[in-house]
Amino acid sequence: MATKTEKKLSEYVIQWKGILVVQRAVKKFAEEFDSDRDACQVPIRLNSLDRIYKELLEVQGPIELYDKSEMLDTHLEERVDLETRYCRAKGFLLSNRTADLNQTTLNNTMVTSAHVSSSFHLRLPKIDLPKFNGDFSRWLAFRDTYMSMIHSNTDILTVAKLQYLLQSLEAEARKPFESVDVEADNYVSTWEALLKRYDNKRFLKRQLFRALYDLPPVN
């Protein structure tokens, strides 16, 4: 009849074998890896590998404790072997996760440049944007600064330009564009509407002369 210790050892060995089957599945995944077919599974496999390794170590300790003392060296060799396989598998998955993330970023960029819904916003790089609140006396400075920083920059996606433009507008200048959907197709029409509203040379000249006449007299 099996003793209490032997029963515990048997239970831990069964657990160990069950967990080892899952680890072998991850190893097989790495050996048969196809980047086009399997890249999307890499983050999931990484989480699975970490969980499995943790569970194996939790079971390995009691097995070493309850098993016969002459088996200790064998169990220690198994522990080293488990760690070696874990490190190899994780290194492989991490190296392929980088490629997967690069591809995902590229795909997202391509999709975003074509269409971005109004409920989604790009995480834009931090730029100290010029601000415009509808004050005509500040329009020319804003227009020239914005055009040099954003509008004429060919490295910025069109949909990102629209986000930057909307973030630059404040108060009265912002109101007509509050309902604009953040889509690449809306950038040109939004920018042209802003130009039509504020880039009126005749009105700007009149505002400039008015500002000059309003200057206090010089002694």
Q: What do you see in this structure?
A:
- It is built from nine helices and no strands.
- It is mostly helical and 219 residues long.
- It has two domains: 4-114, Up-down Bundle (Methane Monooxygenase Hydroxylase, Chain G, domain 1), CATH 1.20.58; 136-213, no CATH class.
- Helix 1 (4-31) packs antiparallel against helix 3 (42-66), helix 1 (4-31) crosses helix 4 (72-114) and helix 6 (158-168) packs parallel to helix 8 (187-198).
- The protein is rod-shaped.
- The termini are far apart.
Keywords:
9 helices, single chain, 219 residues, Methane Monooxygenase Hydroxylase, Chain G, domain 1, rod-shaped, mainly alpha
Q: Give, in order, the helices and strands.
A: HHHHHHHHH
Q: What kind of sheet is the major sheet? A: none
Q: Mean pLDDT across all residues, rounded? A: 75
Q: Flag low-confidence runs.
A: 99-121
Question: How big is the Rg?
Answer: 32 Å
| Tally of contiguous helical segments | 9
For the record, what CATH class of the largest domain applies? Mainly Alpha
CATH architecture of the largest domain: Up-down Bundle
Q: Would you tell me which CATH topology of the largest domain applies?
A: Methane Monooxygenase Hydroxylase, Chain G, domain 1
The oligomerization state is: single chain
Count the domains: 2
Shape: rod-shaped
Helix/strand-derived category reads mainly alpha
The count of DSSP E runs of length 2 or more, i.e. the number of strands, is 0
Question: How much strand?
Answer: under 5%
